[in-house]
Amino acid sequence: MLESLITSKTRLRLLVKFFVNSKTHSHLRGLADEFGESTNAIRKELNNLTQAGILERHTDKNKIEYQANIQHPFFKNIQDIIRKYLGLDKLLEQILERMGEVHQVVLVGDIAEGIDSGKIDVLVSGESLNSEYISHLTTRVEDLIDRKVVFTLLGERITTSGLVLFDKEAGV
Question: What is the CB neighbour count within 10 angstroms for residue 88?
Answer without folding.
Answer: 22
